[in-house]
Amino acid sequence: MNKIVECVPNFSEGRDDEKIRAITDAAAAVDGVTLLDVDPGADTNRTVVTIVGSPEAVKESAFQAIAKAAEVIDMRTHKGTHARMGATDVCPFVPVSGVTMDDCVQYAREVGERVASELNIPIYLYEHAATAPERHNLAVVRAGEYEGLEEKLKDPNWKPDFGDPEFNAQSGATIMGAREFLIAYNINLNTKDGRWATDIAFELREKGRSKRIPNPLSRNLLDGEIVRDDNGKVVKVPGMFKDVKAVGWYVDTYSRAQISINFTNYKVSSIHEVYDAACRLAEERGLRVTGSELVGLIPLEALLMAGRYYLQKQGRTFGVPISELVEIAVQSLGLNDVAPFEAEEKIIEYAVRNDEGGLVSMKVSDFVEELSTDSPAPGGGSVSALMGSLAAALASMVAALTHGKKGMEGKKPEMENVGIKAQELKDRLTVLVDADTEAFNELMAAMRMTQKTDEQKAARHSVVQEATKGATKIPLEVAKLCGKVLELADVVARDGLAASVSDAGVAAEAAFAGLRGARLNVLINLTDIEDEKFKKDVTDEVNKLERSAAGLKVKVITQVEKVIAKL
């Protein structure tokens, strides 16, 4: 899985287009990042920028943007309605895919330390990156804002996490951190009365509502009498979902009311759970939910969670391709209600990917044509990965057919498990089709390095050796994954639908062919590696994989032929 991280720096400038452009140009100039969004606010005098990409690229992009902001923004003259502490006010890192929250904490600290050291800007850490419980909440850390910062820095309790406790009058201080992805999401109602949306929003949100005695003449709790305790204090009722903020309003553009929701941690409270709850609450009030919409982007995993949830409710296997999980999520959540849902624009992983020139994006006929030329790549390594991917797809197919077959209900849990694993293996092996070629190209680039001096020769030799190891690790991974696919083929050959047993056999043969082909690519790459321990360890590992797989393949094919003989 590619590592993707999001960074959302907030800059204390929302009116001067030239300054904003200078900051965003600095951020976008770093290779490997995509500038997804620039949202300036004149009233707040603040601009929110969204950067995504690989961790190293995003860290560099964030630093360059902060450096440029320190250059063009002078906090001594800054005025705005939004709370702020510095030229770059807050800069959170957000895990998207292939990275953890702990990773983002480390990124925040690395960039924070660099900013403090090179730019002389005091750094405070917040949320998951906080060094003390009292620094977890952003509002607490920012209390006093820029105007109170000089005195705050004199307080030993508010010593910066990085940098000296010295007041930087021009740039102020920056608050770095790590947080979950925030999803902005609206649920649409078949009414123009925003009070209905507010009533339901109060039920859903973590903050909850004031307790009320229902009005017998109305289904809207807002019409009920507020309940107070013996001291005259309003009694509060908690809402249904943690890490959910929600309000209700009327949207003139759509001529309907909306429940506007922010998910601050979609892994704690999912969009599908909240959507279904909103549907139930609307029904109780004589209303209907007509659909929903996303504001901004959403991580792929949030939609995959929804897709699996709705397929499970239908009794269908969710061991299906990612595209099908996304489709069922979009349909079930009504995400096409007020505007077409464009996955390539709305799913963050899709918005930043670059499929240009990839082998897996080719038509089969074009791939075969490319393979047949005198170019050394793509070659056997890519073909081996493709064989494994095809084998995994076949195993998934047999599992899905068995899962949905009448009379095979007892096999559903097992087939569900096979289908999920097969899809994961299929997707990874598909990535490795291109990865093998990319590794070869990196090796060729290393071979072309200048070697006029002894120093250049030594540097080239070191890079070539590392690139060769990298080119070896790809087919080694392919071999391991093909072995896992073969294990799944064994399961579906033994317990799967008899009418599809030949497909299980083909899966076994293809997986074994992919493994053996990958082994050959490993061995030929090892011939150019000087690290004898590495060579021995890898040789032993790949030979062991083949021996184990050979016995299993014979077992599977024997089982397949036995079943066919009985048909």
pLDDT averaged residue by residue: 92
Total count of helical runs of at least 4 residues: 17
N-end to C-end Cα span: 42 Å
Question: The biggest beta sheet, please?
Answer: 7 strands, mixed
Taking pLDDT < 50 over at least 5 consecutive residues as the criterion, the unreliable ranges are none
Structural class: alpha+beta
Helix coverage percent of residues?
A: 40-55%
Assigned CATH architecture of the largest domain: Up-down Bundle
Number of domains: 3
β-strand amount:
5-15%
CATH class of the largest domain: Mainly Alpha
Radius of gyration, whole Å: 29 Å
Broad shape: flat
Query: CATH superfamily of the largest domain, please?
Result: Formiminotetrahydrofolate cyclodeaminase monomer, up-and-down helical bundle
Total DSSP E strands: 15
Description of the molecule:
There is one protein chain. It is built from 17 helices and 15 strands. With 567 residues, the protein is of the alpha+beta class. The chain folds into 3 domains: 4-178, Formiminotransferase, N-terminal subdomain (Formiminotransferase-cyclodeaminase, Chain B, domain 1), CATH 3.30.990; 183-352, Alpha-Beta Plaits; 359-566, Up-down Bundle (Four Helix Bundle (Hemerythrin (Met), subunit A)). Strands 1, 2, 3, 4, 5, 6 and 7 form a 7-stranded mixed β-sheet that branches. Helix 13 (380-403) packs antiparallel against helix 14, helix 13 (380-403) runs antiparallel to helix 16 and helix 14 runs antiparallel to helix 15 (454-495). The relative contact order is 0.07.
